Amino acid sequence: MARLQNKYREEVFPQLQKEFELTNPMQVPKVSKITCNIGVGEASRNAKLLDVAMEQLANITGQLPEVRKARKSIAAFKLREGMPVGARVTLRRERMYEFLDRLICIGLPRVRDFRGISANAFDGRGNYTLGIRDILVFPEVDYQKVEGTMGMNITITTSAPTDDQARSLLAGMGMPFKSR
Q1: What is the pTM of this model?
Q2: Positions in the chain short of pLDDT 50
């Protein structure tokens, strides 16, 4: 079992139940899934970039990513409907906790000039999204294969009904939010 999963069960779960006065254990918020997305806008001109993005996303998450295709044609970007434009992975259960643990303990502290992540990036329904400008903060990435910088979006979906409950959940799990 993942270290972060144990922390949730033993420390965070009882703390949230007490903090929000929840009598039913099914009401206590939990992380339900994490979605990692790498957008490769240049993939229409250079197909090799998409292959590199897929390989690196698989290295980071430990799961094979799916190719995302354009939904609309946009002439200004020389993009046609159905062209590959990115890669996405949805993590659940043990892999989700392992990834979140690596993100909190290894990935985020390696970001240059890191002072914490914004506590305002919640969507109003208890989900949190953050962007990483360069995937090289993860030690699994082979930096010799990545040309230039490649960013990644990470969405943490929780079962929390409000942003306050989700913020308490993620803070309890160790997410380094900026102090206001």
Answers
A1: 0.79
A2: none
C-alpha–C-alpha distance, residues 64 and 133, integer Å? 22
**Cβ 87 vs Cβ 135: under 8 Å:** no
One-letter amino acid of 43: A
pLDDT 10s digits, 36-73: 888 877 655 677 777 777 887 788 888 888 887 777 77
Q: Are 80 and 161 in contact (CB under 8 A)?
A: no
In a domain? residue 173: no
- What is the tally of structural domains in the chain? 1
In a domain, 12, yes or no: no
- Domain span holding position 108: 33-117+132-157
Report if residue 177 sits inside a domain: no
The rounded Cα 152 to chain-centroid distance in angstroms is 8
Dihedral sign of CA atoms 155, 157, 163, 169 in order: negative
Question: Is position 70 within any domain?
Answer: yes
88: CATH: 3.30.1440.10
Structure tokens at 137: 């903060």
How many CA atoms lie within 13 Å of 80's alpha carbon, on the beta-carbon side? 3
Q: Which structure tokens are listed for 14?
A: 């009882």
